[in-house]
Amino acid sequence: MTHEVGVTGYCMGGALSIASSVLIPEVDAVVAFYGVPSSELADPAKAKAPVQAHFGELDNFVGFSDVTAAKALEEKLKLSGVPYEVHIYPGNAHAFMNRSPEGVQRRKSMGMPDEDDAAVELAWSRFQSWMTHYLS
C-alpha cells in the first residue's frame, strides 16, 4: 500500500515545506503559506513535487515572503518543471490566514489590519483543491 505525502506550513514552516519538495523524495505535494527557503537550504528551481504558494501583497518580510520573494519563487518554480501555483492576495499582509483572536490582535498591533475573510476562504479552497488533486 502506498501513501501520498502532503506537506504544508506557515512562515518558517512555509519555507520548510517548499524545501521539502526539493530535499525529500517521498513528498508528493506542497502548499506553502508566506515563506520561501534560502537558496542555501533548498533551491526551488530543483523542486520535485508540485508546489502551491500563498502570499499577502502587503507582506513586508523582505526577501522571505514579500511580493518580490513570491515572484522570484515563481520564476524558480517555472525552471523546476513541476506543476506550481503562486497566489498573491491583494490588501493582505503576513500571516493573513491566522484568524485566531491572538493572531488578529498581533497583526493589528503591527499595523496590519487585514480582516479579509474572503481571501482566507479562497486560500483554503485552493489548498483543498491542490492537495485533493495530488494526493488522491
Structure description:
With 136 residues, the protein is α/β, with parallel strands linked by helices. It contains four helices and four strands; from the N terminus they run βαββαβαα. It has helices at 12-23, 67-80, 101-109, 117-134, and strands at residues 6-10, 29-33, 51-56, 84-89. Strands 1-2-3-4 form a four-stranded parallel beta sheet, with helices on both faces. α1 links the parallel β1 and β2 (29-33). The protein is globular, with a radius of gyration of 14 Å. It starts with 5 loop residues before the first strand and ends with a helix. The model has no long low-confidence stretch (mean pLDDT 95).
What amount of the residues lies in strands? 15-25%
Tell me the major beta sheet.
4 strands, parallel
Q: Low-confidence spans: pLDDT under 50, at least 5 residues?
A: none
**What pattern of helices and strands is seen along the backbone?**
EHEEHEHH
Tally of helical segments: 4
What is the mean predicted local confidence, pLDDT?
95
Summarize the structure.
The chain has 136 residues and is of the alpha/beta class. The chain has helices spanning 12-23, 67-80, 101-109, 117-134, and strands at 6-10, 29-33, 51-56, 84-89. It has 4 helices and 4 strands, in the order βαββαβαα.
Quick tags:
single chain, about 140 residues, alpha/beta, 4-stranded parallel sheet, about 15% strand
What is this structure's SSE topology?
Layout: E1 6-10, H1 12-23, E2 29-33, E3 51-56, H2 67-80, E4 84-89, H3 101-109, H4 117-134
Parallel strand pairs: 1-2, 2-3, 3-4
